[in-house]
Design goal:
Bound molecules: pyridoxal-5'-phosphate
Structural class: alpha/beta
Strand order of the largest sheet: 1-7-6-5-4-2-3
Number of strands: 11
CATH topology of one domain: Aspartate Aminotransferase, domain 2
Helix content: 40-55%
Strand content: 5-15%
Order of helices and strands: HHHHHHEHHEHEHEHEEEHHHEEHEEH
CATH architecture of one domain: 3-Layer(aba) Sandwich
Largest sheet: 7 strands, mixed
Number of helices: 16
CATH superfamily of one domain: Type I PLP-dependent aspartate aminotransferase-like (Major domain)
Distance between the termini: 56 Å
Radius of gyration: 24 Å
Length: about 475
């Protein structure tokens, strides 16, 4: 048994830490160069559970980190093209280590002196990038799901006449969002007590984006059913296909009906940094609130999300007991007490990732990753279009590409069965990691190119592996 003095020995960060860093260095090099045999050594959940149950008491604790490395999915491997989590820049491991060791809780200023000030600086920097005025304010929170919940709470506070935060309500409220939106929007609505009917889903076009022509009809129908709509959410982009809603048109609709306009830019608001792709976000500067995940397209360790508000006063009102918040009178004493504006009480120093990345790599760094990955999405679309045994679900706007193998069978049912088996075979094999999605009752293979080392030859190889699996 260790004494407390041993547990707290600073020497843990001496030689053992140097050795671990060496191990991580080797791990990363091997992942980059595909020397790690598989992206994921798949095992059934029950098997994995058994392993860790036994390892806890009988395993060699000096092998713990090696086992974790071996048994985890290798996001830095160029054949990892599945979900939207970032292969972080290695520098992020350093900011994460500093944040973890300092453990400044940030609920009050004294408990996060440096990080609290950094949050304000970064929120202001981000606002400038978006095109917000100096009236904008923002916070950083633990993920896009929590970010959207926070923004929709703000929306209700601002756009509804009742004081629901203090007094509750029995009225039915609702928000509008594309049928292809991320499930976090629906979840936020349910948490806010508005039920399933509180999410008014707008049909999508053949491009899988919100159908602007359906907005008025959906709105009128909801209002006729007694659902008071107070907000509308634009996806930038949606999760399944990665296509961007027409934010400008949504903004115009929101303005016409005095709705709060929230942009779910968890994945793709980072396109704002790219001269080539920022047109996808046209109109975003009209949003009342925006979320952007640092841990998706911005190369940072999970979990960190910026929640930006066009009007600072709204940002301060979310959790305030006061019915109306006067920014001019109170902000000077309040901006540095972050827990008043965030869901979290204790929060980690996530802002260190943002601040350090901006300082080290700047806007150009964020632009470069968006350009590289979104370009590669287009490359993949071209490859599929020129392969007669494959079919695109839709032209991609981003680095998310949905497609299916159509080289065996004719009907959608046959294609569905075949592509389901392909996805399963790829998972078992472990050479590539891709995911899947269902669109209009069709089962599609889905990739998100998150890795700068994933090139055209990998994508060709994937299609060949799929052909082999189909046989
Ligand atoms: C990932 C994602 C979310 C959820 O964000 P988390 O950080 O995983 O909580 C919400 N919306 C979209 C469009 C996403 O891609």
């Amino acid at each position: 048994m260790n004494t407390l003095e041993e547990m707290y020995s600073a020497d843990v960060l001496g030689k053992p830490a140097q050795e671990l860093m060496q191990q991580l260095h080797t791990y990363l090099q091997q992942a980059y160069k595909e020397q790690t045999p598989k992206v994921l050594a798949w095992e059934e959940p029950k098997q994995e559970y058994q392993f860790w149950k036994q390892f806890l008491t009988q395993g060699d604790s000096s092998k713990l980190f090696q086992e974790v490395l071996d048994r985890s999915i290798h996001i830095h491997h160029p054949k990892y093209i599945g979900h939207q989590v970032a292969p972080i820049v290695p520098f992020g491991a350093l900011t994460a280590a500093v944040s973890a060791l300092l453990n400044n809780g940030m609920a009050v200023y004294e408990m996060g002196k440096a990080s609290t000030a950094m949050e304000r600086v970064v929120a202001e920097w981000m606002a400038t990038q978006i095109g917000y005025s100096s009236k904008s304010r923002g916070i950083f929170t633990s993920g896009g799901t929590l970010g959207t919940l926070t923004a929709l709470l703000t929306a209700r506070r601002q756009a509804v006449s009742e004081d629901i935060w203090n007094q509750g309500t029995s009225k039915q409220y609702g928000i509008m969002v594309s049928a292809q939106a991320h499930y976090s929007v629906d979840r936020a609505v349910r948490i806010m007590g508005m039920g399933e009917q509180g999410t008014v889903k707008i049909p999508v076009t053949e491009h899988f984006v919100l159908d602007i022509d359906q907005l008025q009809k959906s709105y009128d129908r909801a209002m006729a059913e007694g659902i008071e709509i107070f907000a509308i959410v634009g996806s930038a982009p949606s999760t399944a296909t990665g296509n961007y809603d027409n934010l400008e048109a949504v903004a115009a609709f929101a303005q016409k009906h005095q709705l709060w306009f929230h942009v779910d830019g968890a994945h793709g608001a980072a396109a704002i940094f790219s001269d080539r792709y920022k047109t996808l976000l046209k109109g975003i500067e009209q949003a009342d609130s925006i979320i952007i995940d640092g841990h998706k397209m911005m190369m940072m360790p999970a979990l960190t999300t910026a929640v930006l508000y066009k009007e600072g006063v709204a940002n301060y009102s979310t959790f305030s007991q006061e019915a109306s918040y006067l920014l001019e009178q109170s902000e000077e004493e309040d901006w540095y007490n972050l827990a008043k504006r965030t869901f979290e009480c204790t929060k980690n120093m996530m802002i260190l990732h943002w601040y350090a990345m901006i300082q080290q790599y700047g806007k150009q760094g964020f632009a470069a990753i968006v350009d590289r990955l979104y370009d590669m999405g287009k490359t993949m679309a071209k490859i599929i279009e020129t392969s007669s045994d494959f079919e695109l679900a839709v032209q991609p706007d981003s680095n998310i590409v949905c497609f299916r193998f159509v080289g065996a069978g004719r009907s959608d049912e046959e294609h569905n069965a075949c592509n389901r088996k392909i996805r399963r075979a790829l998972l078992d094999d472990g050479s590539f990691y891709i995911v899947a999605t269902t669109l209009n009752d069709c089962f599609y293979l889905r990739i998100t190119i998150m890795n700068i080392f994933t090139d055209q030859s990998h994508l060709q190889q994937l299609l060949n592996d799929i052909r082999k699996a189909a046989k």
